[in-house]
């Protein structure tokens, strides 16, 4: 809320500087987000007196004026307005002046005659809404003074929290200032001179739903004359961020800002039979609202109607038909209290959230209905004249007294962690208008209210009753009293100490496996990305990443894609099920920045739904593109290939103390390179890791508009990424007897995979085979075209003895013949 | 052959050998000289072959001279060998000289993203005070995200959270990590000290300071006497750990799920409290919101609000990271420009 200080000062004395006041209010919970100098954008605008006003010789609509600005020669200024006359005091923008909107004023020539500046309208200065005439200042306004010195103001931007609707007005903030400084609040003098006949002769009100409209106060003014409100009022409204409209509408808005009471004024002649009916809309009813939009009213919309039909949406917006116009003379004033929830729903439904509806939504002090009606009538009479009918129409004239709220001073201290004596608590509460009184025996403590009410018997503890001011609708439970005590005392007085109570039981961090993988990958040169979970449906679909979900323990079923029903944009409208597409977008972005070598990974979630049950899972995705080793002065570049990704996966397995992964070719083609893709698996039945590692198909690179020739990607489910510990290491005793190595070149047909050869070696290696490692892959002479040679180094050993040559030869021979028989291989030793 | 001529031969052999050894410039040649003079078929052996023809009295004398000569030649060989090896090594080392100012062979090192790293830093601080980490679902139900946190469906405070809804009835993308409070309280008993980090979502247009996906860390502590003073003590430690020693303060805040509610400010990390544009001239920067858990929330968590009380806080991970690393734009985080990320290597 924008609070002009000069206006605030009408209700409370302020001795502090604006900065001090802002600090005090902030520490009291009314956070001042900014301090603005109103009028700071009137630069070199001074007060002048019109000496002469003559017709321009060459242009009928222009005037030649001379203006005294208090010093120097009078200025010659050409002016197009018609409301000026000699003797008036007016704002003069001197050459070099800058007006709101960075409008620069220079010495100009208008129709052949020089103009040494400009006379300003209220609109040009953003002071009033009047764009037609020059702003006429009161006689006696000091000549030559900067306008900003006279009409400038300091405006505080106060962030009033949603629970403090009572402070969304100048009186409310004056109460907070008073609490902070000890000053007294001055209410405006509110009295209505009732010169007309009884109000009942002009206005009848029927509330058909007293739940949704708990009170309706009406007043009637006749023979008003619509026009602009006084300049000073317009300036105030402008400074508070509200556009002046007309004297009657301004009166209503002024009261909303002053007292926090939204009211509405109708053209009385448009209210048929002078009868206002507050009811729910009937199906099919329509209303043209003030903004000239026809709105279909739904049966849960609370409306203001006359006997013929709707004339306003209650608390949200009036109807166009009954709008105050220049011709209006009869004015019906509505000052009502509506159900906050109903107003909120209606505002949302019609996407109409106004200053008024915002205040209704937060709830209204009951007596404000009466006070607001009176104040609007008073100001209307003052600014628009006319005569006010005698009395009010009031559907609920009985105003409830202050509720009592029992609290235990000791509990307040316990919550705050500070000893605060009862006397001090009472004193603190009194500063925000909360009186305290002894609690009668049997008082119960309201610990919580709806939606989970809890009331308890305080037993022997000391209990006080807080007398809650009628405007403080937010004080409902004991903890609310604690908050008042704390904020008036100042939260900066809260003691600071470390807890000395029991510690909870140990629980491993859910990030242990995740962090192990992250650290490992960063050490291997990959950079971590964090991308959006919300993606475009097209991106999600077009990559056609194989759905491995449900294949293993680590890959639970994904289900259907979850869509956002109110997305911000189509680019972010569904929750992703795979991460690789997001990494491709990251690659594309970096390529656009001229970055070719990209090695990134992300550990992120995928999302799906099975029926109405959402599910989430965590995956590792990685992407390699460009060079693994960029060219350096001491070595050539080496591009990334599939083996890098596999090497990374194998390293992850070692880091997590999992078995080495096994690979099965994946020849599906798109999105993969048909000859460079695989399904990887580690642990029995993929219990530990499953996923795909692949070079992407060139068509996929084209889809993402990538420049890279080759992009290697992987997406892997790793058990424990969303919470588990790393498998404990169990040490193998160091071999006491030497091991022996034998090399074997296995010549097989191209169709055979390394995985098959290796599996065959293991199968026939017997108990003495300790390991095998591929150390060479050869194609070419003397091999024939369809052959390749895989050279393995086999390691043999035993725990209890040094192997004999005969034993080793036998083991190698078994492997040889196994390879020959099972795979049709030739062996060269 | 007599003693004199034999000893003369030996002496001249010695002189010749020492001369040749001294003249040798190559270790291989030195090896050859060793064989030539001292080998089994070498010159010394050859000379000594004549010893058998000497009278028995002379033999020891000749033997002694032969030993002397042998020692002298061996010694000369060893000395020259050492010299030569040293020379060779010196030459090799001289030849191997490199320009040591050339850059090293690059070793790849990736960077870790500041969001998980900041979460880890926060978890490390609170971990020292017994806070354990839980993670809750991101697709939440309205009940847990709002209603159990004392935010009724038509509560005006719902305006504080512009929500993204999903096509599962009653579900939404969590707008904060606070629903984790409910989940933790429902599954554990006091004493509770937990951290709840994670991704959150809001219906919010993106600019330098707004994002529709962002990260929070929620904290929750519940026990019989847990008070606002405990909250202040822990947050002071946290601020100290993350930003170094600096002043802190509570000021009033508002959240429907805490009562009382506070905002926690630290002395501006840019100006140190003097006042600057970064802190809107106030000298303070708000780093998180907190408060005492509302009795309604405790009850939804299955905890008796008469017996237990506790605090909760929620901090924006990007906010903390922005302040710690001087990140100027929120969009940097999810854009993943390597020029940004690699600064965290
Ligand atoms: Zn600062």
List the helices and strands and how they pair.
The complex is a heterodimer of chains A (about 850) and B (about 350).
Chain A: E1 2-4, H1 5-8, H2 18-27, E2 31-38, E3 43-55, E4 63-68, E5 75-79, E6 89-99, E7 103-104, E8 108-110, E9 113-115, E10 118-119, H3 147-151, E11 153-159, H4 170-181, E12 204-207, E13 213-222, H5 231-239, H6 247-259, E14 264-267, E15 275-280, E16 286-288, E17 294-296, E18 302-306, E19 309-313, E20 317-318, E21 331-338, H7 340-349, H8 355-361, H9 368-384, E22 387-388, E23 393-394, E24 404-407, H10 409-416, H11 422-431, E25 435-438, E26 445-448, E27 454-456, E28 464-467, H12 478-489, H13 512-523, E29 527-528, E30 534-535, H14 537-542, E31 574-575, H15 580-592, E32 598-610, E33 613-625, E34 627-629, E35 638-639, H16 642-655, E36 662-665, E37 672-682, E38 689-696, H17 698-703, E39 711-718, E40 740-749, H18 754-765, E41 769-778, E42 787-796, H19 805-823, E43 826-828
Parallel strand pairs in A: 12-15, 29-32
Antiparallel strand pairs in A: 1-11, 2-11, 3-4, 3-6, 4-5, 6-7, 6-10, 8-9, 13-21, 13-22, 13-23, 14-21, 15-18, 16-17, 18-19, 19-20, 24-28, 25-28, 26-27, 30-31, 32-33, 33-39, 34-35, 36-37, 37-38, 38-39, 40-42, 40-43, 41-42
Chain B: H1 3-23, H2 27-38, H3 43-48, H4 58-95, H5 114-127, E1 132-133, E2 139-141, H6 142-145, E3 171-173, H7 179-187, E4 192-201, E5 213-223, H8 228-243, E6 248-252, E7 258-267, E8 284-293, H9 295-300, E9 309-316, H10 317-325, H11 331-335, H12 338-341
Helix pairs in contact in B: 1-4, 2-4, 5-8, 5-10
Zinc ion binds near residues 275, 276 and 279 of chain B.
């Amino acid at each position: 809320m924008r609070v002009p200080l000069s206006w605030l000062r009408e209700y409370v004395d302020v001795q502090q500087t604006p900065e001090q006041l802002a600090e005090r209010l902030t520490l009291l919970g009314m956070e001042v987000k900014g301090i603005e100098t109103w009028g700071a954008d009137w630069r070199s605008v001074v007060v002048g007196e019109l000496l002469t006003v003559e017709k321009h010789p060459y242009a009928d609509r222009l005037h030649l004026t001379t203006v005294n600005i208090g010093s120097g020669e009078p200025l010659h200024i050409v002016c197009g307005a018609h409301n000026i006359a000699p003797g008036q005091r007016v704002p003069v923008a001197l050459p070099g002046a800058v007006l709101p909107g960075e409008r620069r004023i220079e010495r100009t020539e208008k129709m052949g005659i020089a103009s040494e500046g400009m006379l300003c309208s209220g609109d040009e200065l953003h002071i009033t809404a009047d764009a037609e005439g020059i702003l006429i200042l009161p006689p006696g306004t000091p000549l030559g003074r900067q306008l900003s010195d006279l009409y400038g103001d300091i405006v505080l931007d106060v962030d009033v929290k949603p629970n403090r609707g009572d402070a969304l007005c100048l009186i409310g903030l004056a109460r907070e200032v008073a609490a902070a400084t000890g000053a007294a609040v001055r209410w405006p003098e509110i009295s209505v001179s009732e010169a007309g006949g009884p109000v009942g002769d002009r206005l009848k009100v029927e509330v058909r739903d007293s739940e949704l409209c708990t009170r309706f106060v009406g007043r009637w003014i006749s023979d008003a004359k619509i026009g602009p409100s006084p300049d000073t009022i317009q300036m105030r409204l402008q400074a508070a961020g509200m556009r002046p409209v007309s004297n009657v509408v301004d009166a209503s808005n002024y009261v909303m800002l002053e007292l926090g009471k939204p009211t509405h004024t109708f053209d009385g002649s448009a209210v048929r039979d002078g009868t206002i009916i507050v009811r729910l809309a009937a199906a099919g009813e329509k209303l043209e609202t003030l903004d000239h939009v026809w709105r279909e009213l739904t049966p849960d919309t609370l409306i203001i109607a006359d006997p013929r039909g709707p004339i306003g949406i209650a608390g949200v917006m009036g109807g166009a038909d009954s709008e105050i116009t220049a011709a209006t003379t009869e004015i019906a004033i509505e000052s009502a209290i509506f159900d906050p929830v109903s107003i909120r729903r209606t505002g949302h439904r019609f996407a109409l959230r106004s200053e008024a509806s915002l205040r209704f939504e937060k709830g209204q002090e009951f007596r404000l209905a009466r006070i607001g009606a009176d104040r609007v009538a008073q100001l209307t009479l003052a600014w628009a004249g006319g005569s006010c009918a005698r009395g009010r129409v009031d559907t609920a004239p009985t105003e409830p007294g202050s509720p009592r709220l029992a609290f235990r001073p000791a509990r307040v201290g316990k919550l705050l962690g500070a000893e605060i004596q009862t006397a001090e608590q009472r004193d603190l509460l009194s500063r925000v208008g909360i009186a305290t009184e002894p609690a009668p025996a049997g008082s119960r403590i309201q610990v919580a209210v709806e939606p989970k009410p809890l009331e308890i018997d305080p037993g022997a503890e000391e209990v006080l009753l807080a007398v809650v001011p009628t405007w403080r609708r937010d004080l409902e439970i004991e903890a609310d009293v604690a908050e008042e005590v704390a904020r008036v005392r100042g939260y900066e007085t809260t003691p600071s100490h470390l807890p000395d109570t029991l510690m909870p039981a140990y629980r491993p961090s859910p990030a242990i496996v995740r962090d192990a993988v992250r650290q490992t990958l960063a050490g291997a040169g990959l950079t971590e990305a964090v991308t959006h979970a919300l993606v475009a449906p097209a991106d999600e679909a077009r990559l056609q990443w194989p759905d491995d979900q449900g294949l293993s323990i680590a890959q639970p079923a994904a289900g259907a894609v979850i869509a956002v029903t109110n997305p911000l944009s189509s680019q972010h409208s569904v929750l992703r099920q795979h991460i690789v597409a997001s990494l491709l977008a990251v690659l594309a972005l970096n390529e656009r920045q001229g970055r070719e070598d990209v090695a990134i990974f992300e550990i992120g979630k995928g999302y799906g739904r099975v029926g109405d049950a959402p599910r989430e899972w965590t995956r590792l995705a990685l992407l390699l593109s460009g060079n693994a080793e960029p060219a350096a002065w001491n070595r050539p570049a080496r591009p990334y290939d599939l083996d890098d990704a596999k090497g990374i996966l194998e390293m992850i397995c070692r880091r997590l103390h999992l078995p080495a992964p096994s690979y099965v070719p994946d020849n599906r083609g798109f999105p993969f390179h048909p000859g460079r893709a695989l399904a990887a698996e580690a642990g029995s039945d993929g219990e530990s890791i499953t996923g795909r590692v692949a070079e992407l198909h060139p068509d996929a690179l084209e889809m993402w508009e990538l420049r890279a020739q080759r992009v290697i990607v992987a997406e892997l489910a790793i058990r424990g990424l969303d919470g588990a510990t790393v498998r404990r290491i169990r040490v193998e005793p160091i071999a006491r007897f030497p091991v022996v190595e034998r090399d074997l070149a296995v010549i097989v047909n191209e169709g055979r995979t390394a995985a098959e050869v290796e599996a065959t070696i293991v199968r026939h290696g017997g108990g003495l085979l300790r390991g095998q490692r591929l150390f060479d892959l050869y194609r070419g002479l003397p091999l024939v075209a369809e052959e390749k040679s895989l050279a393995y180094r086999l390691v043999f050993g035993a725990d209890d003895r040094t192997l004999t040559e005969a034993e080793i030869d036998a083991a190698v021979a078994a492997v040889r013949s196994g390879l020959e028989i099972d795979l049709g291989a030739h062996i060269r030793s | 052959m007599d003693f004199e001529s034999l000893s003369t031969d030996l002496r001249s052999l010695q002189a010749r050998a020492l001369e040749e050894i001294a003249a040798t410039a190559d270790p291989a040649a030195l090896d050859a000289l060793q064989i030539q003079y001292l080998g089994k078929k070498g010159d010394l052996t050859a000379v000594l072959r004549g010893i058998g023809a000497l009278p028995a009295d002379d033999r020891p004398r000749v033997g002694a001279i032969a030993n002397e000569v042998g020692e002298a030649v061996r010694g000369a060989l060893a000395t020259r060998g050492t010299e030569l090896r040293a020379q060779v090594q010196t030459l090799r080392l001289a030849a191997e000289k490199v320009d040591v100012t050339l850059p090293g062979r690059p070793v790849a090192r990736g960077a870790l993203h500041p969001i998980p790293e900041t979460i880890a830093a926060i978890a490390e601080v609170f971990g020292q005070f017994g806070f354990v980490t839980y993670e809750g679902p991101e697709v939440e139900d309205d009940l847990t995200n709002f209603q159990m946190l004392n935010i009724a469906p038509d509560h005006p405070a719902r305006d504080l959270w512009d929500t993204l809804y999903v096509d599962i009835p009653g579900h939404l993308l969590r707008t904060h990590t606070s629903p984790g409070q409910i989940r933790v309280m429902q599954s554990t008993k006091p004493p509770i000290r937990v951290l709840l980090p994670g991704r959150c979502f809001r219906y919010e247009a993106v600019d330098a300071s707004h994002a529709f996906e962002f990260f929070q860390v929620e904290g929750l502590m519940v026990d019989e006497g847990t008070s606002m003073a405990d909250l202040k003590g822990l947050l002071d430690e946290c601020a100290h750990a993350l930003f170094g020693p600096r002043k802190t303060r509570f000021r009033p805040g508002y959240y429907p799920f805490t009562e009382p509610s506070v905002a926690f400010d630290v002395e501006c990390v840019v100006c140190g409290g003097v006042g600057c544009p970064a802190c809107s001239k106030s000298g303070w920067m708000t780093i998180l919101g907190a408060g005492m858990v509302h009795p309604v929330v405790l009850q939804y968590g299955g905890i008796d609000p008469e017996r237990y009380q506790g605090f909760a806080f929620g901090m924006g991970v990007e906010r903390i990271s922005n302040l710690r690393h001087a990140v100027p734009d929120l969009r940097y985080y999810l854009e993943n420009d390597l020029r940004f990320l690699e600064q965290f290597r």
